[in-house]
Specification:
This protein is an alpha+beta fold. Helices cover 34% and strands 22% of the residues. The chain has seven helices and eight strands, in the order βαβαβαβββαββααα. A six-stranded mixed beta sheet has the order 7-6-1-3-2-8. A two-stranded antiparallel sheet has the order 4-5. The longest helix has 17 residues. It is globular, with a radius of gyration of 15 Å. The two termini are 24 Å apart. 37% of the residues are buried.
Length: 180
């Protein structure tokens, strides 16, 4: 990792839907789909989906903070999820599809907590914001076929993004908000 690069890790349900919003932003160097937060080393997709590993589906974002700040990453993250759902995201249910912000240092922790509090106080949602902010653990890249799924399987990705309810939720709660 270069001197001017940082890492952010977010779980937002299905990682297929979490890559595209970040992938083409200025200052984003790479976005990797993977697994984190659990106890099994080098888990497979099947293991993680069984909800027996403790892992979340997540994305790890390498970014240049001078071009795209961590605060902007947090704003964009909140716009992709239902932060009031403790049981998963949209169509996908279970622990591996729950949301989380994994902080890599105390600054990220503080900024994430401030961002969460600001969202809670905004009144945008009528239920509590339940997305936890937890220390980052080892991140395991997912199998290659999961990487940049939205580019490799455009039709299936678009169908899933809409059919899962994610697209409609975003439109309802964030219409008019910029995606940077």
């Amino acid at each position: 990792m270069e001197k001017n690069e940082r890492i952010a890790t977010f779980a937002g349900g299905c990682f297929w839907c979490m890559v595209k919003p970040f992938d083409e932003q200025p200052g984003i160097i790479k976005v990797v789909s993977g697994y984190t937060g659990g106890t099994v080393e080098n888990p497979t997709y099947q293991q993680v989906c069984s909800d027996t590993t403790g892992h979340y589906e997540a994305v790890q974002i390498t970014y240049n903070p001078a071009t795209f700040s961590y605060e902007k990453l947090l704003e964009l993250f909140w716009q992709q999820i239902d932060p009031t759902d403790p049981g998963g995201q949209f169509y996908d249910r279970g622990q591996s599809y729950q949301t989380a912000i994994f902080y890599h240092d105390e600054t990220q922790k503080r900024l994430a907590e401030e961002s969460k509090q600001k969202l809670q106080e905004s009144g945008r949602f009528n239920k509590p914001i339940v997305t936890p902010i937890i220390p980052a653990k080892t991140f395991y890249p997912a199998e290659e076929y999961h990487q940049h799924y939205y580019k490799k399987n455009r039709a299936h990705y678009e169908s899933y993004h809409i059919g899962s309810g994610r697209s409609g939720f975003r439109q309802k709660h964030w219409e008019g908000e910029h995606e940077y």
